[in-house]
User: What shape does this take?
Amino acid sequence: MRKIQLASLDRKKDRKFISSLARGLSILEAFDQAHPRLGIADLARKTGLSKSTIYRLIYTLRSLGYVIPDGQGNKYTLGPKVLSLGYAVLSSLDLREIAQPYLLRLSRRVKETVNLAVLDEWKLVYVERLKTQQIVNINLHVGSRLELYNTAMGRVLAAFNSEKWLAQYMKYLEKIPEAKPYWRNKGEKLLKIFEEVRKNDFAVNDQELTPGLRSIASPVRNREGQVVGAVNIAVSSSLFSLERLQEKMIPPLKQTTQAISLALGFKA
Assistant: This one.
């Protein structure tokens, strides 16, 4: 049985390095195609960690759904949560790779900041950002997470979900005091916004995320017609009124999202 190399764990002098996290990840790395089921003793041999440490780590990982009992004795296998994480990463990377040339072309055409985001539970995650010098100074980058309710891309990613999903999202939103204007009265304001998004196939953000920033977003669809991403164009409100933003940016934006969707196999 191959032993996991844990030399990287011995970094006591590095204050930024979290050894307990590294040990937990070493447990996950111990499972492979040749050893899909491992017990406490197996993991101790593979990682070099004590059985008591392995037991505590397995207890935590099991509680979080990253490992599960295999049902055949005292052994464990990787849980579906690990698989879902891998799928999400691969999906977003594929989308980003396919979308990148189209986004670059759009950014050069409109000379404004262009972003691509995907849905991650109740928030959006940036997977691509092509920034220009004209954009309002806001600290966003690939990996940044934002709320859905007050962003153009977030509204696109949320609007096309099922009624059940939307009901659950409203419950989540009620925990955010700043979002009260959107969720009060049974979410009347936000649900109306989502209805407009579905009708028009785009969403706008009129300085709701931050003063001085306007944006417009359109959905990206896969071969099944599901919305798997959103592309936006972000502009300075001093240069673009809401009307001018829609007039100038909707055509190139929709051309881009339609092209990406076609590249993903979507057929309108």
In short: Residues 28 and 228 are 28 Å apart (CA to CA). The chain has two domains: 7-78, 89-263.
